[in-house]
Amino acid sequence: MSYVIAGRAIKNEYLALGTILSTAAIAMAATSGEKKAPAPVQEQSNIEASSSEEADFIKNFVAEAEKEGHADKH
Q1: Quick one: average pLDDT of 52-65?
Q2: What distance in Å separates the CA atoms of residue 20 and residue 49, rounded to the nearest whole number?
Q3: d(CA 21, CA 69)
Q4: How far apart are CA 42 and CA 20, in angstroms?
Q5: Are the CB atoms for 11 and 2 separated by under 8 Å?
Q6: What values do phi and psi take at 2, rounded to 5?
Q7: Helical residues (DSSP H) of the chain, grouped into ranges
Q8: Which terms in the GO cellular component ontology are assigned (predicted)?
């Protein structure tokens, strides 16, 4: 079976291939391009604690979490 497009008979096989290839081309064009670098992480933020003991606890907790995070990555 075929369809008449712009006065010409086009087979179903060619229409199917054209659809698949154009979809793949659009998908590749959409995913390619310039890759954006992730935003830099702030080195340190202000700790707003109600007491110095709480501030020390938060600092120690963050330091331990960073040590564990670096150990897992390497």
Answers
A1: 89
A2: 59
A3: 44
A4: 45
A5: yes
A6: -145, 160
A7: 12-31, 52-73
A8: mitochondrial membrane
3-state secondary structure of 36: coil
* CB of 63 closer than 8 Å to CB of 70: no
Can you give the length of the chain in residues? 74
- Estimate to the nearest angstrom the gap between the alpha carbon of 55 and the chain centroid: 35
pLDDT score of 42 more than 70 = no
Q: How far is 38 from 62, CA to CA, in rounded Å? A: 22
**Cβ distance 9 to 2 under 8 Å?**
yes
Contact 11, 5 (CB under 8 A): no
pTM assigned to the model: 0.44
Query: 33 — phi, psi (to 5°)?
Result: 120, -165
pLDDT at 20: 98
